[in-house]
Amino acid sequence: MLPKYITILNKIIPLVNDWKRPTIQAVNYLLQIIDHGADRFPKTAKFVSGNLKLIDHVLALINEPLFYDNLQKKSSIKTNFMNTALEFLVNMISEPEILAHMKQASSAPIFLRLTSCKHKSLALHANNLLAYTIREEDIKAMPNSGLLLKKNIKILKTTINKKSDDHSNTEQLLETLRGN
After folding, report:
1. For 58-69, how does the pLDDT look when each residue is reduced to its tens digit (9 = 90+)?
2. How many domains would you assign to the chain?
3. Any residues with CB less than 8 A from the CB of 113 and at least 6 apart, and which?
4. How far, CA to CA in Å, does 179 sit from each of 18, 62, 105?
5. Which residue segment(s) compose the domain that 135 sits in?
6. Whole-model pTM?
7. What is the pLDDT of residues 97-128, one digit of tens each?
8. CATH number of the CATH domain containing 116
């Protein structure tokens, strides 16, 4: 089924600037379907690693101004789409082939742009992806690389102080600090 999804994306991604709400929702649901259980079942990421064009499509979409210029602190269709796309990538980076492909695609600047987003979940996913995909050259090119670490530590402190029963954000932040 995945090759058919990729064929559909091949046709509609070039028209992304003409997408209306139903198309954004359909692609969002498509990513959710593929991603379903990927955080618990490594088979999903392994299957996607044989279809790296899907990763290319997701990277292209999150690098579209249509989406990253319209992010909001509260939920909106475009913010939800971006969050789904980033969560999908977070769940896929456990597969070495996918991680290597994302690094080769020089995706770190895309994630860096999204780390300052006001939507907390989206920024958390972007930070996690950045930690895994950033290369030494990317760090050297950053005007203030220490600021990124400082920001991650601040987010971690805030998350720990909330004393929530949901520890997934804390685990994800610790993983971000650990990096690759």
Report:
1. 999 999 999 999
2. 1
3. 68
4. 37, 21, 18
5. 2-178
6. 0.82
7. 999 999 999 999 999 899 888 888 898 899 88
8. 1.25.10
